[in-house]
TrEMBL record:
<keyword id="KW-0812">Transmembrane</keyword>
<protein>
    <recommendedName>
        <fullName>alpha-N-acetylneuraminyl-2,3-beta-galactosyl-1,3-N-acetylgalactosaminide6-alpha-sialyltransferase</fullName>
        <ecNumber>2.4.3.7</ecNumber>
    </recommendedName>
</protein>
<keyword id="KW-0333">Golgi apparatus</keyword>
<comment type="pathway">
    <text>Glycolipid biosynthesis.</text>
</comment>
<keyword id="KW-0735">Signal-anchor</keyword>
<keyword id="KW-0325">Glycoprotein</keyword>
<dbReference type="Pfam" id="PF00777">
    <property type="entry name" value="Glyco_transf_29"/>
</dbReference>
<keyword id="KW-1133">Transmembrane helix</keyword>
<dbReference type="GO" id="GO:0009311">
    <property type="term" value="P:oligosaccharide metabolic process"/>
</dbReference>
<keyword id="KW-0730">Sialic acid</keyword>
<dbReference type="InterPro" id="IPR038578">
    <property type="entry name" value="GT29-like_sf"/>
</dbReference>
<keyword id="KW-0472">Membrane</keyword>
<keyword id="KW-0443">Lipid metabolism</keyword>
<dbReference type="InterPro" id="IPR001675">
    <property type="entry name" value="Glyco_trans_29"/>
</dbReference>
<comment type="similarity">
    <text>Belongs to the glycosyltransferase 29 family.</text>
</comment>
<dbReference type="GO" id="GO:0001665">
    <property type="term" value="F:alpha-N-acetylgalactosaminide alpha-2,6-sialyltransferase activity"/>
</dbReference>
<dbReference type="GO" id="GO:0001574">
    <property type="term" value="P:ganglioside biosynthetic process"/>
</dbReference>
Length: 307
């Protein structure tokens, strides 16, 4: 009688312990701090400068991106971000349905969806836009900013164009757009954040962006923003740093929506070697591959083999 009772209580208490352990494991797992980029320049640039562990909070305001004209920080959080590149690599891979499944779909500049849905998907939740592409949006204001459009626009550009004292030509265009389309959700990258993106380039490549005569690409700004805002990143249509030298390279237009333009690899090589005013697309891709080793970033269509 006693032994039976004893055995029973042993079983009960050990199953309690198992349940408790499981609970602790689950708790620990789900609270695992997420790697985030430091939102601002000037915060400790230690060895772990980039991948500091901060608790992951939904809708954490990001003061590196401020709304036009009210200067409110960007608040955004995405589980899975699909970043759709503008590359001709998007064509004929039929990634559209896959892209449409993710919680956030990001695009760059004025890359269209209409007529390309099968390959690039339907929705656009956010666009990262270069200051040089703003005139292209302004040409079709109803399409981009009209009623019912929920797309968030994040515009990057140098201070001279983005200054808010009336002398920033691009900022003025954006301000006008919001006056005409009050529902438009437009954010601009702060000067500090722009400097931070330059600093990241220097840290990663050893080269000073300005001295080396280059401009960062919209892809660079997009990935830096995504690492702060998305739990998981899926990049579609981006080629890796050795793609243009590989046997299997596909000759595609630089932009999927500009058939007949210079092909992607020709454009990349031209930029990479331009003494000034070029984008270092290939260098940037090598940096992205490095980031993908410590961040949940996947590159698809074409897929990157990252070890
Ligand atoms: C919103 O703008 C995007 C371009 O970013 C466009 O593709 C889409 O059709 C627009 N949506 C609506 C409802 O107007
Ligand atoms: C880069 O792309 C080429 C061509 O698709 C491929 O052969 C190579 O394995 C890729 N490298 C990596 C690291 O993914």
């Amino acid at each position: 009688m006693f032994w039976q009772h004893f055995r029973k209580s042993v079983i009960v208490s050990s199953s309690l312990i198992v349940v408790l352990c499981l609970f602790l494991v689950v708790m620990n797992y789900s609270e695992k701090p997420y790697f985030l980029l430091q939102p601002m320049l000037g915060q400790s640039f230690s060895r772990t400068w980039m991948f500091s562990r901060a608790p992951h909070k939904a809708f954490r305001p990001h003061y590196g991106y401020l709304s036009v004209p009210s200067q409110k920080p960007l608040k955004l959080h995405c589980e899975v971000c699909s970043i759709v590149s503008s590359s001709g690599q998007m064509l004929d891979r039929e990634a559209g349905p896959d892209i449409d499944q993710s919680s956030c779909i990001w695009r760059m500049n004025n890359a269209p969806t209409r007529g390309f849905e099968r390959d690039v998907g339907h929705r656009t939740d956010l666009r990262v836009v270069s200051h040089t592409s703003v005139p292209l949006l302004i040409q079709k204001p109803q399409h981009f900013f009209g009623q019912g459009n929920e797309t968030v626009y994040v515009v990057w550009g140098p201070f001279r164009n983005m200054r808010q004292d009336g002398k920033g030509i691009v900022y003025n265009m954006l301000k006008q757009a919001v006056e005409n389309y009050p529902h438009a959700r437009i954010y601009v990258t702060t000067e500090e954040r722009m400097n931070y993106c330059d600093t990241v380039f220097k840290k990663e490549t050893g080269k000073d962006r300005i001295q080396s005569g280059s401009y960062l690409s919209t892809g660079w700004f997009t990935l830096i923003l995504a690492m702060d805002m998305c739990k998981e990143i899926r990049v579609y249509g981006m080629i890796n740093d050795t793609y243009c030298k590989s046997e299997s390279f596909r000759k595609v237009p630089y932009h999927y929506y500009e058939a007949g333009s210079r092909d992607e690899c020709a454009e990349y090589l031209l930029h990479e070697s331009a003494p000034y005013g070029g984008h270092r697309f290939i260098t940037e891709k090598a940096v992205f591959a490095k980031w993908a080793k410590s961040h949940p970033i996947k590159f698809l269509s074409p897929e990157w083999q990252l070890s």
